[in-house]
Give the backbone structure.
Amino acid sequence: MAQIRVENLRKQFGNFTAVKGSSFTIEDGSFFVMLGPSGCGKTTTLRMIAGLELPSEGRILLDGEDVTFLRASRRDIAFVFQMFALYPHLNVRRNIAYPLRCQGVPRAEIKQRIEETARLLQIEHLLDRGVSGLSGGDRQRVALGRAIVRRPKAFLMDEPLGALDSEFRRVMCGELRQLHERISATTVYVTHDQLEAMAMADQIAVMNHGVVEQIATPQQIYDAPASMFVADFIGSPPMSFLQFDGAVRQGEHRVRIGEAVVEVPTLREEGIQGALALGARPEHVLLASDGALRGRVLGAEYLGTTQIVTLQTQHGQVKARLASTKSVSLGDNVGIGFRTERLALFDAASGRALNVGARHG
Amino acid sequence: MADVRLDGVTKRFRDVEAVAALALDIPDGELVVLLGPTGAGKTTTLRLVAGLERPDAGRVIIGGEDVTAEPPAVRDVAFVFQQYSLYPHLTVFDNLAFPLRSPARRMSDDEVRKRVRDVAALLHIEGKLGNKATRLSGGEMQRVAIGRALVRAPSIYLMDEPLSSLDAKLRSELRLELKRIQVELGATILYVTHDQIEAMTMASRIGVLSEGRLVQIGTPREVYERPQNLYVAMHLGTPAINLIPADLLPAPGAPAGTRTIGARTEQLRIAPPNGAADRGLLKWVEHLGDQNHLHLEIKGHNLTTLADPHSPWKAGDAVSVELVDPLYFDATGARVERGEAVR
């Protein structure tokens, strides 16, 4: 297994810059997820790591060795695609064996490695079955088996669960993560689904317009998003923003939003003035009868133990996750409060998060 | 708007009973959601109300009138389908106005304009009225499709998974808007979905269907907190309720005859292992952001529970598990109350 390092990686397609100078290190044995909307450059980055695209600029290092211009087949990396392509005329055993036969691995070793792989994936009972009769999940497991059996330095996966329905995707997320716990292989995984990223990753790189906006653990990204884009992309429902014109000085811990004064975590950087945004996750928003900030109840969505209440303020919509025992009526005018220490502040013009307070993690 | 009633309605397709003796009341102004998997009879029920199918038995009553034998046109219902089918060559305005310009209605141009404007405002698409229908985003197209139903004032709106072709973000926005519009208009809606989140968040009442039968109907809270049986319990709540044999964990409050215990994530409490029999292994910590789902294994059974995201649990930890006021089910799958004797 290996460490992957990407330095100033750029990719230009004609006039379009798909990847704009990314640099990051994927530690040996880590599950690294590149997350972003379509067109953000995540798949292009992955394809450059695989050797399926050549970068316009920059370097890719595999365990310290420069592989930037090495052919894909020489990189010792296994690629798992979204559409699991299996050989329909071969049974499961032969499908998994295929990459080893190509490499001319001795027969006895092939047999042993197939059995080990099948055990890891819990598909021993399927080895002698044809692949055409398999369920979607089992086909996906066989496709994974074909990658694992090579014992590559790293696995690259491009939305491997994209074609599955949501319930089954969750199950496979669990399986992939548990497989990762067993073999600890360096894995680079591309998805646009924030739930998949949160569920499986050790580290998430959130990408937007060819730029990596933040790299951190799932919890850090959730708790302290680096930008409004990240804050909005992660969480369901995502972070709410109150947009306002105002000013906050270094060391200060309150902002004025219209008429209301709201306590925020202490600003730990130079003061700023202009278009700002206060960011609040739904579970950090409360109803406070004496709250200076007022909102009208637009909707209450029952989810079992909790409900999501949407409030319309003069500065934008705010969603609150409240106990479902709390009764609210549409149209009510309510006061809004916050768990102060968990709030975020953004420079609304650039979207950058301001450095505030002491945070978890 | 009007009350709609299904009275013992049965519909067979060859040997298959798609809808079986279904009795359902949809009072004026309610949004009733029919929830069930593919093949449960949801869409057939909608089509029976619309008159697109004729029942083999039973009656369909709209506004107190028996319309069982009436054709769709005279039933005064508006149907919204999953796939928005707009007229691509017409503007948004003309798409919305289309149902009002039917010769049967003879509505004045002024009245048509007013209705279209009102509905466009309600759906926040006033700015798009001049656009060609093809030059809209998916969310806007579905809004127009819903709008085309809303310009009329029918007895009931019938909606067949109207949001399921949209992406998750748009779906949650439109869910909220549709509910707001329903409340504002006091509209009567029969809404069909297999998405339990839609059912929970939008419904005045949820009817849970299984193989053409109505298993339970009640407010979202009633069906979530007091499911009639295992089937209903399994179809509401994310992640799905944990179902375990009655003897897997200590359950001092279990009524006699309990065969299965249903514990939602919030009805399991985990702690460091105490050496007792209720010991499990933490297999996977799933981050959601606001909380974590902990996936446990106990004596070969997989369980999912909740934990604070900043708690130190990690994969491989041993844990002890305690039930907190779970649900109890007997051998037939019916839920039994604590202290209620099993018949």
Summary: Chain B has a mean pLDDT of 91. Residues 168-185 of chain B form the longest helix (18 residues). Chain B has eight helices and 19 strands.
